[in-house]
Automatic annotation (TrEMBL):
Cellular compartments annotated: Nucleus
Family listed: Belongs to the DEAD box helicase family. DEAH subfamily. DDX15/PRP43 sub-subfamily.
Lineage: Eukaryota, Fungi, Dikarya, Ascomycota, Saccharomycotina
Ranges for domain Helicase C-terminal: 291-473
Protein name, per record: RNA helicase
SUPFAM superfamilies found in the cross-reference section: P-loop containing nucleoside triphosphate hydrolases
Bias (Basic and acidic residues) ranges: 1-13, 19-33
Function: Pre-mRNA processing factor involved in disassembly of spliceosomes after the release of mature mRNA.
GO cellular component labels: post-mRNA release spliceosomal complex
MF-aspect GO terms: ATP binding; hydrolase activity; RNA binding; RNA helicase activity
Region of interest (Disordered), residue spans: 1-33
Gene Ontology terms: biological process: ribonucleoprotein complex biogenesis; spliceosomal complex disassembly
Organism: Diutina rugosa (Yeast)
Pfam families: DEAD, HA2_C, Helicase_C, OB_NTP_bind, WHD_HA2
Membrane spanning residue stretches: none
Length: 755
């Protein structure tokens, strides 16, 4: 009763406030900055605000007091302001505001580097002043590096501490708080939030950035916000994209066959000369390194951006370039060369280094210094690094591929699309005319590269996505408004997998387990495994395994010290396999050996990646907290317990039973994946002795790696009895096609039923 009363009273207040606002034409922008600071200034609540103009916003920006903090702007702020007001988007601020005010959903297209990601959210903030209503603005990014880096930049631009008014949220890392009004987040994180808050009620405006990337999460978000927008007329949506497939977005978000409005900001790019290689390059890595060195030796001033495919390759290239550059300096008197890597798992302080200026010449008037950034696709459109004049493009990136028939999702180094190649080349023309060196032939560009990459939704295993959609309350997946609907077979596979995991009932409804699993930011298999682990008495150990699987590899294997690295690894090896080995490493890091020499040193001595272990600890803590929150017991099994290994491995089977392989009969090396009958080899990095009759017959694996051969990686030996005991439905023989695996399983079933 009492409740209803207050609610009613508040409603009345709102309408009074609205009336007052209408009558007196009070504009938020007529308030002084001090007045704008009060976060819950009751007077403003629910008040109809009038639209600001670009001029009014700029007045606030160039005033004395920061309206978001109430503090005086610092000199540094004005320094940055001078630079950013020259970005192309500022010239069209009024046009942006006019469209923003006139429509609920708009599409915004602009050349990379024009200021979309950093400026547009601020345009919205200065217009909406969302903090007055207790609301926030969200800006999504497909990549965590971009979310973190841009948040840091915008916090500087707005003269606030990162984590206060401007924050970020990426999986397993959050930096935001009660004061936050602008949050950069990965598209996946916003999707997670939507699972608990279907209306996205804390946001007044949602900006979906880098929509052209068409990541899985962005695609789902687009479908979702389209629905939410109908229920929440007060919610504004901006879809931002770098390349010009704007019409597709416009018509997708359009109403009654009318495309939604578009604002396109013309780029301010300089011409880029494109060079192709006369012939096919067998070793693109080597070719890329040589090209960088040649540019440094012969071309005018200007920084170099090289696109490679992943962390290992990038670190390797950086080392080699660094080494050889020293030689160039000695032998040819070249200027200094500084090399920076850039990839997703790089820690934030290292990421920020790419923005440092190129090194000074060795002596005044000497040959200029240069910086080289060796990057994944991140630098294609997500991050802009000023000063780049030369781009080296080998034409590859790591891309997800999924084959629903054999249920294999894998990251593959694949040729990029023409659109990507154009974006990459464009990075050379930011500040002045540039050059792009494509390490492939012109013919290959014309004939072999596809025009546009396929959206991720068409290349992914969808079990996480389907679980998310179910949790979002979207039951009718077939009629969900996807921009590009996934293949029915992929959808069926996902439903089937979730059913085996008991996350979905036979009718396709979310089960209690499914609901619980969806609260963990993990693949459903791993979530189910973690939730089930207390029953095996080893949830602490399984937490460690899941954490290890959620971060980059613990083990490093430098080319120069392979043997030593392999020996170091074997010291941690558990005879039953890689997952148990992770636990050994983590234990020594967290509470064992490492305490004596210090964790850094200990990692160096043992060829371990300190950062990975550090983030495993962070991930583990967060998952542990989730376990506590959902009342899942935390228990541990002592290392010397005779059931130590078998308990943990059974807990692993309970989640990963769909990823099992059996040694092919008569073979010493080849395995067959269970059910899908793919012939695979075990990745040589394993500690498992596969020649051993007891441990080498049946294994569970985490990853299917497609290279010249098919490998399974991260493997642990399992007892087939556990398979039929823990996942009887999946291992029901009637679902198996004739063959080796079926025969062996039949024997296991017989023995199991006899007992
Ligand atoms: O999103 P879009 O590609 O349109 O541009 P942006 O990311 O907003 O970048 C606009 C400008 O801000 C570029 O000139 C960047 O160099 C600069 N920026 C920066 O200096 N430091 C960052 N961490 C991010 C951007
Ligand atoms: Mg951007």
């Amino acid at each position: 009763m009492g409740d209803r009363k207050t609610k009613k009273a508040r409603l009345d207040e709102t309408s009074v406030a609205e009336k007052v606002a209408e009558e007196s034409e009070t504009h938020t922008h007529n308030r002084t900055p001090e007045e704008l600071v009060h976060h819950d200034a009751g007077e403003f609540k629910g008040m109809k605000r009038h639209h600001t103009t670009a001029e009014q916003a700029q007045k606030l920006e160039t005033g004395k007091i920061n309206p978001f903090t109430g503090r005086n702007y610092t000199d540094k702020y004005f320094g940055i302001y001078e630079v950013r007001k020259n970005l192309p988007v500022h010239a069209q601020r009024q046009e942006f505001l006019d469209i923003f005010h006139s429509t609920q959903i708009m599409v915004f297209v602009g050349e990379t580097g024009s200021g979309k990601t950093t400026q547009i959210p601020q345009f919205v903030l200065y217009d909406e002043m969302p903090h007055l209503e207790g609301k926030q603005v969200a800006c999504t990014q497909p990549r965590r590096v971009a979310a973190m880096s841009v948040a840091a930049r915008v916090a500087d631009e707005m003269d606030v501490e990162l984590g206060d008014e401007v924050g970020y949220s990426v999986r397993f890392e959050h930096k935001s708080g009660p004061k936050t009004v602008l949050k950069y987040m990965t598209d996946g994180m916003l999707l997670r939030e939507a699972m608990d808050d279907h209306e996205l009620s804390r946001y007044s405006c949602i900006i979906l950035d880098e929509a052209h990337e068409r990541t899985l999460a962005t695609d789902i978000l687009m479908g979702l916000v389209k629905q939410v927008a109908q229920r929440r007329p007060d919610l504004k949506i901006i879809v931002m994209s770098a390349t010009l497939d704007a019409e597709k977005f416009q018509s997708y978000f359009g109403l009654n066959d009318k495309p939604t409005p578009l604002l396109a900001v013309p780029g301010r790019t300089h011409p880029v000369e494109i060079y192709y290689t006369p012939e096919f390059q067998r070793d693109y890595l080597d070719s890329a390194i040589r090209t960088v060195l040649q540019i440094h030796a012969t071309e005018d001033e200007g920084d170099i951006l090289v696109f490679l495919t992943g962390e290992d390759e990038i670190e390797d290239a950086c080392r080699k370039i660094d080494l050889e550059a020293n030689q160039l300096v000695r032998e040819q008197g070249c200027g200094p060369l500084k090399v920076y890597p850039l990839y997703g798992s790089l820690p934030p302080y290292m990421q920020q280094k790419i923005f440092e200026p190129a090194p000074e010449p060795y002596k005044p008037g000497g040959r200029p210094g240069r910086k080289v950034i060796v990057s994944t696709n991140i630098a294609e459109t997500s991050l802009t690094i000023d000063g780049v004049v030369y781009v080296v493009d080998p034409g590859f990136s790591k891309q997800k591929v999924y084959n629903p028939r054999i249920r294999v999702e894998s990251l593959l180094v694949s040729p990029i699309s023409k659109a990507s190649a154009q974006q990459r080349a464009g990075r050379a023309g930011r500040t002045r005319p540039g050059k792009c060196f494509r390490l492939y032939t012109e013919e290959a560009f014309n004939k072999e590269l596809i025009d546009q990459s396929y959206p991720e939704i068409l290349r992914s295993n969808l079990s996480s996505t389907v679980l998310e959609l179910k949790k979002l309350g979207i039951d009718d997946l077939v009629h969900f408004d996807f921009m590009d609907p996934p293949a029915p077979e992929t959808m069926m596979r996902a439903l089937e997998e979730l059913n085996y995991l008991q996350c979905l009932s036979d009718e396709g409804d979310l089960t209690a387990l499914g609901r619980l699993a969806s609260n963990f930011p993990l693949d459903p298999m791993l979530a189910v495994m973690l939730i089930g682990s207390p029953a095996f008495g080893c949830s602490e150990e399984v937490l460690t395994v899941v954490a290890a699987l959620s971060v980059p590899q613990f083990f490093v294997r430098p080319v120069s010290a392979r043997k030593a690295a392999d020996e170091a690894k074997m010291r941690f090896a558990h005879p039953d396999g890689d997952h148990l080995t992770f636990i050994n490493v983590y234990y020594e890091f967290d509470q064992g050996e490492a305490q004596q020499v210090g964790q850094h040193q200990w990692c160096r001595d043992n060829f371990l990646n300190y950062r990975s272990l550090q983030s495993a600890r962070n991930v583990r803590q967060q998952l542990r907290r989730l376990m506590e929150r959902y009342d899942l017991e935390l228990n541990s099994i002592p290392f010397d317990d005779p059931n130590y290994s078998s308990s943990i491995r059974q807990a692993l089977v309970a989640g990963m039973f769909m990823q099992v392989a059996k040694k092919k009969s008569g073979s010493t090396k080849s395995y067959l994946t269970v059910k899908d009958n793919q012939e695979v080899l075990i990745h040589p990095s394993t500690v498992l002795d596969t020649s051993n009759k007891h441990t080498g017959e049946w294994v569970l694996y985490n990853e299917f790696v497609l290279t010249s051969k098919n490998y399974i990686r991260t493997v642990t030996s399992v007892d087939p009895k556990w398979l039929v005991k823990l996942a009887p439905k999946y291992f029901d023989l009637s679902h198996f096609s004739k063959g080796d695996v079926k025969l062996s399983l039949a024997r296991v079933w017989d023995r199991y039923q006899d007992n």
